[in-house]
Amino acid sequence: MLEILKQSSNPEICKPLVEAVIEKAKEFQQKFGRRPAFMEVCGSHTMSLARTGVKQCLKDEVNLISGPGCPVCVTDQRSIDAMIALAEGENRIICTFGDMMRVPGSNKTLLDSKIAGKDIRVLYSPVEAIKIAEENPDKEVIFLGVGFETTIPILTLMVGEAEKRSIGNFSIWMTTKLVEPVLRYLLDAGEVNLDGFLLPGHVSIVLGENSYKYLVDEYHISGVITGFETAELLFGIYKSIELALTGQAAIINNHPSIVTKTGNQVIHQWMDKYLTECDEAWRGIGVIPNSGLDLKPEYSQFNAKKRFTVEVGEPRKTKCRCGEVIRGLISPNECSLFGKACHPMNPVGPCMVSAEGSCAAYYQYMRESF
Amino acid sequence: MEKFISLAHGDGGELSHRLIRDVFINAFGDGNEAMFDAASVIISNSKIAVTTDSFVIKPIFFPGGSIGKLAVAGTVNDLAVSGAKPVYLTCGFIIEEGFPVADLRQIVLDMANEARKTGVVIVAGDTKVVERGSADGVYINTTGIGVYQPNMGCSLEFEEGDAIIVSGTIGDHGIAVLTARGELGITVPINSDCASLNTMLDEVLQHSKGVRIMRDPTRGGLATTLVEIAEDFNITMKINEIDVPVKGEVHGVCDLLGFDPLYLANEGKAIIVVAENERNKVIDILREFPEGENAVVIGTIIGKEKGQLLLETPLGSKRILNRLSGTMFPRIC
Fold it and tell me: Which family does the similarity line name (chain A) (predicted)?
């Protein structure tokens, strides 16, 4: 398997693929008089496309637009401020994925609070939070549940584990997001002209190929389920152009060995058991109805939002344009703060600090000053 | 001997005396250098190198080494990459009350073994004990003294075309320690590369006059160390991503958790910049040693106008590499 993965970045395979993509893109340009435009929905795709050099190699031929797929970046500012405020309470242990630590709140970051003495722990393995709760019965252990469909199953697993072990001092602050509602929002808004989507391989493992049918049936737009290695990315783009050229809309599964038609049914059962749809606020967009998942009322004991109240004021206004970056309206370097007031050591918005943020990808991998 | 360290082991009285006698002198020996309040050593009439480093690694025992082995190898390597022959070490211990004496013995033994292997003599030491909770187990500081040998060393003069060599796979230490902490929820069969490199690097300097600089890419990893060289000497360096040796296991963990192997710590690797016409000779020498068996050329110096580090991807595109900025955190999905 490893050898196959290594082959995926083998220049002998990838360079001809780049040539093939460029040739196809030129064909598209001849036919339509513009570059084909595709949105990579997922933050990991944005990162991989930038890190492997695919974006740079294709920049004159294919318009690759980053989408709303970085969970930290799409979390609205009030929600970020609430999570930081949550950590101020006494007798609490806040557990989080590392990405959240340096996300700028209106006044400070979680890292600032940690340095000031608050008990905030970065977990690599989220289920560790259950162990922490068991070991600290006199403290409230709260996990910051930020994520898309790839992360949500882990959150349900944690609740299941806490339930099984009858742990009373564990809860999750749910701010999860779903892919379908935001794609529908973007398509309905019609702000970006797209010839198709590069759909994320790992989210698709959970959702399944059939879950994207609405793209074809209701919006007549294509999607290619694509992996994260260089050759996979290039092949996904090639297929997308090929589809756009025919004018047909279809969902193509380029990951058939791991993405099934109906997704992971066990995970679906878990999600159905514990979670219910809820409205969620998105950065730069506002509330999208039924765009997130919350714990069902019967599991309120594990719902931090039901157990703790935090008060936050109006978020501080900045010139950060993360909201437009997320919607695919501008590329990071079009923001006046990019690389000047806003850089990884001093992020103004979440897109610059998250490991999947478009601005971080652009800053780290795509600046060309040589 | 007691089973656990108490505050009395650090008060300078009878227990301190016994601890030093039974644990430290027992392992390090009671050399002629050890006098009352200071060691007396003889250094031939040459320029010397001095370096100091503190070790606070967690966990203190990890696959492929321990804080003891690291405390010797780390300081020895700082001297060796500077082109000096390591001769003497001092060590200072800060121990938390309640620390198991058996663990301390093992750490000290690891130090003694590594010192013996490298040929350095530990000539002075100090032990302090702090209250439980004031430190995390044990911290060690080592100071090393090395001697520069006449007509041998790094020129610090660079030319376009100079080769950038790395002595083996990168990121092993970072991943071994992270997984040994048990927080990743995964087990990876990988050992830290923790090793002293002085014998190997001495051999390189003995046989090559073309060495420009040597550095050990510890914290901040390969990329950060190369950026420092590029900026300090105002040279443009280019490395090829496909040539950088990374173990499959390290790649796997990095993919899973969003780390970049270029920024992971190493404790037994050297970067050597060498004249183009000496590169093969240096590679051959490195590969004679187990610590250098995977040595490869990963890039070249391509200019002398701008201090920056470029990485060429397998697709042929180039990007700038910067220093590690902030802690590397794993991603969400």
Answer: Belongs to the HypD family.
Q: Quote the DSSP letter at residue A79.
A: H
Q: Where are the beta strands (DSSP E) in chain B?
A: 48-55, 61-62, 65-66, 84-96, 121-130, 138-148, 163-166, 211-215, 236-240, 271-274, 296-303, 308-312, 318-321
Q: What is the pTM of this model?
A: 0.90
B42/A contact by beta carbon, under 8 A: no
Cβ contacts of A44 on chain B, cutoff 8 Å: 331, 333
Q: How far is CA A91 from CA A123, A136, A307, A308, in A?
A: 19, 10, 14, 12
Burial of B45 (0-12, 13-18, 19+ CB in 10 A): exposed
| Partner-chain contact A52 B325, CB within 8 Å | no
ipTM for the complex? 0.84
- Distance, in Å, from the CA atom of B146 to the CA atom of B28, rounded to the nearest integer, reads 19
CA of B185 to nearest chain A CA: how many angstroms apart? Answer: 5
Q: Are A99 and B331 inside 8 Å of each other by CB?
A: yes
Q: How many CA atoms lie within 13 A of B254 on its CB side?
A: 19
- Convert B270-292 to b/e letters by CB count within 10 Å (16 or more is b): bbbbbbeebbeebbebbbebebb
pLDDT in tens, A114-149: 999 999 999 988 889 999 999 999 999 999 999 999
Tokens 């060995």 belong to: A257
Quick one: pLDDT at residue A369? 56
Could you give the CA distance from residue A289 to residue A360 in angstroms, rounded to a whole number? 29
Of chain B residues 208-267, which have a CB less than 8 A from chain A? Answer: 236, 242, 248, 251-252, 257-258
End-to-end CA, chain B = 51
Could you tell me the domains of chain B?
7-148 (3.30.1330.10), 163-321 (3.90.650.10)
Task: Kindly state the tokens that stand for B216.
Answer: 């050990």
The chain B residue lying nearest A18, using CA atoms, is: B315
